[in-house]
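Entry 14. Ran structure prediction on the chain below.
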Amino acid sequence: MKKQFVTLNILFCLLLMINPAKIVAEENKNILTFEELSIKIMPEFAYHPKDEKKDHPPLLIGYQGTMLNNTDQPQQGQIEIPLPMDEKNFRIGYVADYSSDLSKVYEIEYIINEELGTISWTTSEEIQPKEVYKFVVEYYTDNLTVTNDKKSLDYQFQSFADISLFNVSFIQPLMAENIVLDPAPEKKETHADEEGIFSYNYQGLKAGDSKSFSLNYERSESKPTVEFVDDKPAQSKEVKKGFNKLEIAAFGVIGLIMIGGMTVLLRRNRK
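Output, structure tokens:
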């Protein structure tokens, strides 16, 4: 079967406005469609592995995407998505994609386009017809606002494509108190509603749609959540119980896809 290698550009809505090659964008826009995008927002979870100064609480955000090959040919090419690169002290932490059976994780090289504010990479494997392609991108910012023990975050996501299923999860840091989210998350009897995990689920997000959230909490502890892994003997039962819940949240609420990236992150930080 003849192999296809094309630019699998999911920024087609943006590119139709800024790229004169409108016909090319129109041809490519239906090659891959976004089936699902899950975003995990993890304040004070871990510092970037290359951070030297640690005088500001970190914010880790992870994108986990699932895309579908709508053609009758295998596809392999370039994926490009926008990221909020203008945010304070933005830096990439981890980028990977996965084999179709999820048995392999490929940490991949990527290209940053600062002018467009996008990150792009080439798929590690061919995407077979009607099969899904999964990836994870993790980045850090210093967007948490700090006033003594009080922390706050205003987070907004503007969709860059049509997305069938969209999920946002806030993972509270260990030992945080008085957590307030606006809008208030719905209470559902699901695993994602464990204490300390706050999730929002949407269907049929259109390109250009935006979702806004605000988070406020109090925390006197300066150590990020992930560092408690190396201090388990000294932890109280309450802290251990809390970490077990948040460990599940950070590594498995949305599915096995996030495990690869977060496990590597955990290893790096433990080193």
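The chain has one domain: 4-270. Will compare against last week's run tomorrow.
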